[in-house]
Design brief:
Length: about 180
């Protein structure tokens, strides 16, 4: 085998190893952050006010879901730990390449965080509307026609979900400071 072929193969092997280790680290860090976020939300869900018509309390269902999410995140972390032992240290630039490759997921996560922060102030309808429009833009709705469709979908989901919860499930979603 010539030196050129050996070096090319070594670079491909190194890129594969870097990708595997970066993926493992990415999953571990991302799921650890999510687990902490869900644990915080679990605690906060216990503070939801209960009414006398809800025998288990308003926070019971969210706490069950959040507990499952924390367990799921911990299971992913445990699953990824052996991948770290099987690979060597990352080469320079591997983390940056992984972050660039997953920028869309991080963009949607940041938008979700902004929406979550805006819900107490604006209410569910008005916080979810721009979130849904911008998410659809990030996911590829660029033409005028696609943006009009994205806006209609966002209106239907933000106002429709709020109406569904209020009138069918008799659960009030946050209305914000002016709702």
């Amino acid at each position: 085998m010539s030196d050129a072929n050996h070096n090319a193969r070594s670079l491909d092997d190194r890129a594969h190893i870097d990708a595997k280790r970066a993926k493992a680290w990415g999953h571990i860090i991302f799921n650890a952050i999510l687990a902490l976020l869900f644990a915080f939300m679990f605690v906060r869900a216990g503070e939801l006010p209960s009414s006398m018509w809800e025998p288990m309390g308003a926070g019971t269902f969210p706490r069950i879901v959040l507990a499952f999410l924390v367990v799921f995140n911990v299971m992913i972390i445990i699953k990824e730990l052996p991948s770290l032992k099987q690979t060597s240290a990352l080469s320079q630039g591997a983390v940056r390449a992984w972050l660039i490759e997953h920028r869309l997921a991080f963009g949607v996560l940041i938008l979700f965080g902004l929406m979550t922060a805006a819900v107490p102030i604006l209410g569910f309808r008005w916080a979810s509307l721009p979130f849904l429009i911008v998410c659809q833009y990030l996911l590829g709705a660029r033409s005028t026609k696609a943006l009009v469709i994205a806006t209609v979908i966002a209106l239907a989901l933000s106002f429709g979900l709020e109406s569904l919860f209020r009138h069918v499930f008799t659960i009030s979603l946050p209305r914000g400071m002016w709702g």
